[in-house]
Amino acid sequence: MFLGNPSELFRFAYSDLEEMNNAIYIPSIYSQLNKFQYALFRVHTMNWLKKYIQLPLKSLWARVIFKNIPVKPQGDKTYIYVCQRGWPDYEKELHLIDYIKKRNPKARFVVFFEDLFKTYHNHDFGNTNLTVDFIKEKYDLALSFDQGDCDKYGFVYHPLVFSSFKEQLIDMPFSDAYFLGYAKDRLPGIIRTYERLRDAGLKCDFHIAGVRKEDRVHEEEIDYEPHINYMDNLQHVAHTKCIVEIMQKGGKGYSQRAFEAIGLGKMLLTNNETIKQAPFFSSSLIKTFVDPNEIKVEDLQAIKDAPSTVNYDYKDEISPIGLTKFIESHLEL
User: Percent of the chain beyond pLDDT 70?
Assistant: First the structure.
């Protein structure tokens, strides 16, 4: 059972689980509540309210949440619950794991951190003080997509997952290089990268959100107000030769863009030098740089000459089906 995340990105990333007859993906805690229950739940678990009053009986929500989720074992099956963002945050208050264990002592519990562990401490609802000790006490296996967090906290590394793109391609222009993202602290680097690619004759498809009007340059060439959902994003990926990745300052690890490149067979241009240590790294398919102005001429030419799809030979390793096998192996089932 994957106790998952409701975002379109995660629903797609885990969609290959539909091919399995022994896996279920639950989008979120909220997906198990009707409108009235949802409103009541939000009030009952609201963090700012805890400053004034501690409301009792929160553990009763477990019965509601797991009303339609298998809990009691059938035969000698071992149920594994893989918890993604949203589920660990509520564990201290709702005691979901305790609820299941009382009804199924053989159940095993896994948590997969698909964002940096420190980001699990800033929510309006649920627990805002997850600790490593609590995670290790409650979960049989703790996975993280970030090797740095694994080294720091003793988690087990597993890359982000990515499912097969099965959508029909729409009719849209084809590009040499595609970028989509919020500017955050990296706008100068994004613009300089765009200019380097454009000046080298590459056809660019750039979409930058969160930029003040006075900071916008090349407005006729760059889309500063993108209205692109995740499936639209994948259409743009499918219609390019190369995905452009500009990491935030201090960012390490491998982002979703890298796995989109693997999943849809696209080259990757990135300022993430640590990607050279990745098991999927290929110097012919992934081009790195530090200064956008110093992106190598031969790398630009390689992007321009690239076929519409390339092969990293790594899709199985990032498949959610592969993740289930990885978990079973580590739990020795």
Answer: 96
Q: How many Cα atoms are found within 13 Å in the side-chain-facing hemisphere of 168?
A: 2
pLDDT tens-digit readout, 231-275 = 999 999 999 999 999 987 666 678 899 999 999 999 999 999 999
- In 3-state terms, what secondary structure has residue 324? helix
* Degrees to nearest 5, angle at CA 159 with 30 and 121: 45
Helix segments in the chain, DSSP class H: 8-13, 35-44, 61-65, 87-94, 96-103, 132-138, 147-153, 187-199, 230-238, 256-264, 297-305, 320-330
Whether 260 contacts 278, CB under 8 Å: no
180 phi and psi angles, rounded to 5 deg: -140, 130
- CA dist 179 and 33 (Å) reads 37
- pTM over 0.90? The answer is no
Q: Which amino acid is at 114?
A: E
Quick count: other Cβ atoms within 10 Å of Cβ 227? 8
With contact defined as beta carbons under 8 Å apart, do 176 and 242 qualify? yes
Strand boundaries in 122-254, DSSP class E: 141-144, 156-157, 175-182, 204-209, 240-245
Question: Given a cut of 60, is residue 120 above it in pLDDT?
Answer: yes
DSSP symbol at 93: H
* Degrees to nearest 5, angle at CA 289 with 284 and 295: 85
Amino acid at 13: A
Query: Which of 30-34, 73-77, 118-122, 144-148 bottoms out in mean pLDDT, i.e. has the lowest?
Result: 118-122
Q: Is residue 131's pLDDT more than 70?
A: yes
Average pLDDT over residues 27-44: 94
Q: Closest Cα to residue 152, out of 174, 135, 127, 128?
A: 135
DSSP state, residue 25:
E
Contact 75, 112 (CB under 8 A): no
